[in-house]
Amino acid sequence: MIATGGNRATSMPSPAGSGGSSVTAGPSEASTGVGTELPNIGEIFRDQLEHRRPSVARPSSAPRVMRLSSLEEAERLAGQYFDSMGYQYPFLSRPEFMANLRHIYTGGVPSPETHHSYHIVIAISLLIGSADPIQAAEFYHASQETLPLALQNEDLPAVRALLGLSLYTMFATAGPSIWHLLGATMRLSISMGLHKTRSYSSIAEEEMAKRAFWSLYNLDRLIASTLGRPLGIADDDISVGLLRELNDDETEAPGASAMTIPLQVTRLRRIFSRIYQYLYSSLPRLCPQEAAATLSRFRHEVDDWRITAPVYPSALLYSTSYYDYLYYTTLLLMYRPSPRNPTPDITSIISCGESSIQVIRSYWDSYSVGKLKWIWLTLSQVYFAGITILWCLEQNARSLRDSQPAPWHPEEQTMRRGIQAVVVLLEEFGKRRPGVDRLAETFRHQSTVIFSQMAYQQQQLEQQQHHHHPQHQHHYQPQPQPPPPPFALLPAHPMSLAAPPPPPVPLAPVLDDVLLVDGSGTVPMIDPQMAEQLFYSYNWFQEEMASYYTL
């Protein structure tokens, strides 16, 4: 489906330039793109695995430091990192980082840990800000000069260094496998006991350890579920408490702290984790009654989470739209076909169809304002949501063929625009990543066939209604509806804070009431084998994507 190629290189990078200021990469470096010489996990850990030693003091001096044009520019990029990644993965202290930044830009010599942290944060910020990828790669290469020192001990700086590297490789087009990185980081954190309740010398030390562990936990749940792989640690093995909502001065501020958003994200990820372990395991299939009862309980938990999640005015987007996105991706995971619930009931069909549309809308909103991240995680979520809509429409077609009422009744234009948004986004991915264009073309073709089936069945239904008297029509029992989303209970946001609505998704003619019926007048059908692969198993896409991106 996706063309092969573009694999991540596995050789150790050579530092780009020297000295204290930004260096322009040579032609050979510039042509390789972002991170094409990032090391694999074996090279990162080879020395540590073969030559383990007790904890020793790190050197007090560090290699060269790359500086931006001014302290103000560095503070802007660092702020950009903490205002995005910092709300999702708060393993670094913002006040401490900013103090170290000022120390560096006033001529100070950073410690190896500070040296590595500074360069990797600036590299990540340059990537997520869609800046010049060559400059991001230069800062990354500079961070590698002190990575061995950051990893020499089994301690919190080593965990933070690996988390920073994981975030960088998640956004870079090439680099070490994030799956392997997170696995190594999880083993390190477990050996340190970060997953357990334990004593610390201060509140600050305890909270920074908890922030590192829960950042790792959230990344692990995201990556494992996206790739369809086992989790790095079972929830039953975790006893450490959740984050405390502390301000920078260590005063507690429930609902009004920079830790409020990370805390809410972690609470949902814990529900998400239980859903994933329950539905996506090798245990026997669930009976319909047990599946319905358990999903109902999970739905109640997820709805309660969304209703009670507080709005944090200092990060309005993250505490509103981002919460909505997490809410709908969790519902999508819960209701779509899964190994233990491969044939979801009507409530699930309706719920995963509506959730898929909302997930796509979230990505389209980001695309409309030029803020979509063109990374494999985005590709996965967009494709999963799109193919789930097609699955729901296929369930409608199956029901109608069996003379049963269609289970899902989406608003027509909203559903069609959602499908077309997926086509547009996949095509845009194809322009940036060779091979994805084939995935876009396949999705477009399957969408066209589905819409053709819908048009044909509508035509047949109208003909039947024309030839039969109304009293001979079938009377169907009303179908159960899914629980309504909880947003009606949320406080309305001031209009002055609301973002302008994004432009509507254009409807492509190929998806707009196209009737592809051959001369015999038979209904267009999807190849059964293709339908089974597309609609009842996500594994083929997860495995192919992991191979393509060397995850």
Write a concise keyword list for the protein shown above:
transcription, single chain, 20 helices, globular, nucleus, about 550 residues, metal-binding, zinc ion binding, mainly alpha
Protein described:
It is a single chain. Helices cover 56% and strands 0% of the residues. By secondary structure, it is an all-alpha fold. It is found in: Nucleus.
Amount of helix = 55-70%
Quickly give the structural class.
Answer: mainly alpha
What do the pLDDT scores average to?
81
| Total strand segments | 0
Largest sheet: none
Name the helix and strand elements from N-terminus to C-terminus, one letter apiece: HHHHHHHHHHHHHHHHHHHH
Distance between the termini: 17 Å
Tally the helices: what do you get? Answer: 20
- Unreliable stretches (pLDDT < 50, length at least 5) are 4-36, 487-500, 505-528
Strand content range: under 5%
How would the global form be characterised? Answer: globular
Please give the radius of gyration in angstroms: 25 Å
Protein name: Transcription factor, fungi
Organism: Penicillium roqueforti (strain FM164)
Keywords: DNA-binding, Metal-binding, Nucleus, Transcription, Transcription regulation, Zinc
GO biological process, one term: DNA-templated transcription
